[in-house]
Write a structure and sequence with these properties.
This protein is an alpha+beta fold. Helices cover 36% and strands 30% of the residues. It has five helices and five strands. A three-stranded antiparallel beta sheet has the order 1-5-4. Strand 2 and strand 3 form a beta hairpin. The two termini are 15 Å apart. 35% of the residues are buried.
């Protein structure tokens, strides 16, 4: 069952300008440690940051709150499976909102698609609820992290 859908388009130049103007103050406020490490390894760090910023905005829309009601940029982070497939890891208010959206007996999954074509970065986020397999497993929400 689809719980929420969000999309966002971010101007890479705007993210680059924020990095140049505010430096670590901007990146540490908006991005997780994992996102910063991954983005800083890229030849075009601003494009990597912009994709992640777009994913956070899209995720906030899919949660139905936007960046309000206790959902903050730092509470959402793009993480990658070993295959490279992106998903979101949610903490604090964002994780609480996700948990409130998922019906009993189901687990939440966050699907993410990221792309960029200078000067824009785009993200799509779909939040899905699927029946829990084995109550003892607890599912991904038991750990506070959505799964791929």
């Amino acid at each position: 069952m689809i719980i929420g859908i969000g999309s966002d388009l971010t101007d890479i130049r705007r993210i680059q300008a924020s990095i140049e103007r505010f430096g670590e103050r901007f990146t540490e406020r908006c991005f997780t440690e994992i996102e910063r490490a991954r983005s800083e390894r890229k030849p075009d760090a601003a494009a990597s940051y912009a994709k992640r910023f777009a994913a956070k905005e899209a995720c906030a829309k899919a949660l139905g709150t936007g960046l309000k009601h206790g959902v903050y940029l730092a509470d959402m982070g793009v993480v990658n499976a070993r295959s490279g497939k992106p998903t979101m890891s949610l903490t604090n208010g964002a994780a609480d909102r996700l948990a409130a959206l998922i019906p009993p007996g189901m687990d939440g999954f966050i699907h993410v698609s990221l792309t960029d074509d200078h000067p824009y970065a785009q993200a799509f986020v779909v939040i899905e609820a699927l029946p829990r397999i084995g109550e003892a497993a607890g599912g991904p929400l038991a750990a506070g992290i959505s799964s791929v």
